[in-house]
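Hi support team,

I've been running sequence recovery on a batch of backbones for a student project. Most finish fine, but this one hangs at about 90% for roughly twenty minutes before it completes. I'm not sure whether the input is malformed or the queue is just slow. I've pasted the structure tokens below so you can try to reproduce it. Let me know if you need the job ID as well.

Thanks,
M.K.
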């Protein structure tokens, strides 16, 4: 059993899964941003931070599930924080549509 404060976290499959998840969420948010810029749609503008926020919450749910299974959970926690910070950064997108 590994203690949470130990630094023996090494799981390349979990890293690939988390990176794939983040890239997929960024692709959906990028598509919403493209629609926002093309159509000047405020609804699509609201989707950009919304998709990133939902992806961050989804990553935190996965963090909890991996933690309960005694897996390498900090990878998913980092993915969640990255997506939540990007959602805060993109909060100005709907306002920029006007």
């Amino acid at each position: 059993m590994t203690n949470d404060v130990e630094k023996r976290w090494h799981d390349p499959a979990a890293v690939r899964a988390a990176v794939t998840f983040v890239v997929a969420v960024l692709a959906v948010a990028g598509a919403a941003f493209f629609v926002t810029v093309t159509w000047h749609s405020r609804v699509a503008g609201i989707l950009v931070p919304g998709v990133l926020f939902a992806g961050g919450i989804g990553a935190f749910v996965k963090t909890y599930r991996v933690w309960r299974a005694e897996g390498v959970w900090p990878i998913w926690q980092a993915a969640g924080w990255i997506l939540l910070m990007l959602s805060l950064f993109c909060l100005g997108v709907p306002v920029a549509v006007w």
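--
Follow-up from support: It reproduced on our side and the slowdown came from queue contention, not your input. Residues 12-39 form the longest helix (28 residues). No action needed from you.
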